[in-house]
Amino acid sequence: ENRTNIVMNANRKKKRVLAGTMAALMVATSSPTGAFTYQDLSIVKAETVATEGYYTEDGFYIEDGVLRWYRGEEENIVIPNDVVSIGSGAFLDDEIKSVTIPESVTRIEEYAFYKTSLEEITIPDTVEYLGEYAFSRCEKLSKAELNTKTIEQNAFANCTKLTQVTFGDNVETIDREAFKNCEKLEILTLGKGIKNIGICCFQSCISLKEVSFPTGIDTIGSFSFEGCTGIEKIVFEGAVKNIDSSAFKRLTSLTKIEFSDEMGRLGMFAFEGCTAVESIISNTLHRGRQNNIRKA
Question: What values do phi and psi take at 27, rounded to 5?
């Protein structure tokens, strides 16, 4: 009983410190657009204190299948098999290096692993929802393998050491700014199921060299690859219904674009500022639409 009280008191103390940290960051991360914020997260955690749950021996606090937070000391963790959801901010700012996620998990909520020390992450196919900012600012993360239908906005934004991302065929939507400012990202593999790439999705990923888009894409959003100054070649393997305005703006190293035989709408200034383009391969892109590929 005494040991339990000591553990619970230590956990309460750590939680109060975390709440203070979130309060300090709240102003910087709050959004007038109604997006999920640290304020929301702190409210969720405050409400959780009064609900029923239990601690495992490894320091996980679980309530109705939701992993609310982690208070253990291990850097390499294995999430229990009875967890179905990883809650909002569950590992926020924790110094964990690796995590094994069981196939019982179907949801990873907002800020779940925000600013942790994770180095690699593989998310099982059973995960149906990957929330906003879930892995944002994980500045030691180098590799991610994803197969979730929808990856919400800013999910991996500002992961400055991320070098490789592989999307499985289940991925349909990568929301806005999901990988923005991942400046070390070199290898991007898109799955066959991809339909929508959001606004500013890969903006300023300056280490990318080549991108191939599979057939069946509905939309490549505005500014989605803007400022990816390292890209030298773009290949469209099949039809893309919409390439929105400025989608590939300011790709100053781009020399070659290969369009498929069937292409949809090419938005105004889609390739504006691509000053090094030497070769445009297309059997169907008439000259008027090629004017949307501007060097200045």
Answer: -65, -40
d(C-alpha 198, C-alpha 11), whole Å? 39
CA 151 – CA 255 distance, rounded (Å): 30
Under 8 Å between Cβ of 216 and 236: no
Dist. CA 97–CA 296, nearest whole Å: 44
pTM for this structure?
A: 0.82
Question: C-alpha 153: how far from its chain's center?
Answer: 7
List phi, psi (to 5°) of 45. Answer: -65, -40
Q: How far is CA 3 from CA 37, 73, 78, in A?
A: 35, 16, 24
> What Cα–Cα distance (Å) separates residue 246 from each residue in 234, 267, 268?
15, 7, 7
Q: Which two tokens stand for residue 165?
A: 């991302």
- Please provide the distance, in angstroms rounded to a whole number, between the alpha carbons at the two ends of the chain: 72
Per-residue pLDDT tens, the chain, 296 aa: give them. Answer: 443 343 344 344 344 334 334 433 433 344 434 444 555 554 444 444 445 799 999 999 999 999 999 999 999 999 999 999 999 999 999 999 999 999 999 999 999 999 999 999 999 999 999 999 999 999 999 999 999 999 999 999 999 999 999 999 999 999 999 999 999 999 999 999 999 999 999 999 999 999 999 999 999 999 999 999 999 999 999 989 999 999 999 999 999 999 988 888 999 999 999 999 998 988 666 444 555 565 54
